[in-house]
Amino acid sequence: MFLLKDIYWEIRKTKEKGYGVFAKKEIKAGTVISDYLGKVINIAEYDLDNDKKGLYLMYFTDQASIYPNLTKPGPHLLNHSCKPNCWVYIYHGHTLFFALRKIKRDEELTISYLLSPKDETCNPCNHNCKCESKFCTGTMHLSKNKYKRWQKFQDEEKKKTKITKFVFGKNLQKLTSYPRIIQNNPIYQSMQ
Ligand SMILES: [Zn+2]
Ligand SMILES: [Zn+2]
Question: Under a CB-based contact definition with an 8 Å cutoff, are residues 64 and 94 in contact?
Fold first, then answer.
């Protein structure tokens, strides 16, 4: 679900990456954009191999993932970039995306998918990156170093927040309130 009013964004078709989310108006640095809502799936019971749309699953807890409603516009439409202008902030277990810097009108909003380093389990790998940034590594998989750094940061953050209540098979509910601005943290830049 987008938390940012729709005067700020719209869905457009991209050249090579299917749909994407674009700024209709300038978005200030730190602005919270969305909450990744959807059905709470028990990953132990989920047949990932037989669902191509499984790539939209978002980590929630070690047992649960979020499966978004693909018929509605939502943060699952944000494309990956090696130099994204949005980043992830975990708030009561919910995955929020926020603007990492000022985003100009007509810029595409992008995130890092923060995929684990490429190994033999990702085969065939369809995570080639077409972000066209100067820093493009050609893959959406993170390097080992970056991945480790991110995991460490997330583990520390996890200790500080409480995950909201949820029920397997039901929709994750919107929170009663959200932060409006996320403060910058050097870790975000160091991941790019
Ligand atoms: Zn892959
Ligand atoms: Zn790239």
Answer: no
Chain centre to alpha carbon of residue 91 = 13
CATH of domain 9-183: 2.170.270.10
Average model confidence (pLDDT) across the chain: 93
* Closest ligand to the CA of 136: 2
Nearest ligand (C-alpha, residue 126): 1
> In angstroms, rounded to a whole number, what is the distance separating the alpha carbons of residues 110 and 114?
12
Quickly list DSSP for 110-131: EE---BPPP-TTS-S---B---
Cis peptide before 124 (omega within 30 of 0): yes
How many angstroms separate the CA atoms of 64 and 57, rounded?
10
Q: What is the pTM of this model?
A: 0.94
